[in-house]
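Chapter review: from sequence to fold.
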Amino acid sequence: MGQRFEAVVGPVAHGGHCVARLEPQGRVVFVRHALPGERVVLEVTEGTDGDRFWRADAVEVLEPSPDRVPAPCPYAGPGRCGGCDFQHVTLARQRALKADVVREQLSRLARLDVDVHIEEVPGEPPHEHDGLRWRTRQRYVDLPDGGHGMRLHRSHEVIEVDDCLIAGAPARHVVHGLPFEVEQDGFWQVHPGAPEVLVDTVLDFLQPRAGETVLDLYAGVGLFARFLADRVGAAAVTLVEGDQRACGHAVVNVPGATVLPGDVGSVLAELPAAAVDLVVLDPPREGARRSVVEAVVVRRPRAVAYVACDPAALARDVAIFAEHGYRLGGLRGFDLFPMTHHVECVALLTKTASDLR
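The token string follows.
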């Protein structure tokens, strides 16, 4: 730790850093605050001689990328707040980097060659095109003097922050004119444009028809189920959600639907494996995983909409679906988290009509 090396930065990697190799030994280093192709001086932040890789910050840029810009936030950069990964990158290149990550994960983990484009999502004016003021919920560390702070990257150390530039106005829990009941500290998408664009994409992918049956897994307060119920009838919609408080709100938000509280895998294991037409999966960052995916495919849905906040988890689960004959029929990526490495994707998984017989 603390040693400095000069290196040329390689491709972006999942997690908000780029890959560099130190010559002559070829040591792999994951470098933050850099861009592919740049020549930088990096300072090791984690690593010993016996480790497979090191972590580092680019503390000096010798040959900058044309996509490098001054960070708008004074707290962004090496040794500062760890909340943002890409403040030093133009928004267009941020989205291109995220597309590279999604593409690489699908190629490496699911053996798929997919054209990926990350779309801008409109936010609250006047900041919808500059990547700032979009985050409707923000957590701070309370400081003894009454101020608040943010943690450094991969650290418990706190830096005092007067103003977080990605923090915006509190969320309005209204989607396409419909209000939603949500716990004050419960889950809700933090980008103001996220709920509508995700709902629209799920509906467009699934093309729900009256009379079809729907399973909404990791359903939260019923965001997707409410609009699916409008298409197929509430009685045909079943929600499964592990958070008891969210289940209580889902009962209010999707009247007439069946709401089942409990771990998704456990609930599905206890339910009869009756056929279902459509499935929505919106799992946490670790993904649905094999037990849930296999509990879905045994019900033979004609289409699955998978909402993913982690490209690696998405790719692993898409590979499991493929083992059971489900193909990636569509993919859209959304920049719901500008200035960070995070990206949201919606994938469509389908079987052909002959497969479903």
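Two observations follow directly from the output. The chain has a mean pLDDT of 95. The two ends are 60 Å apart (CA to CA).
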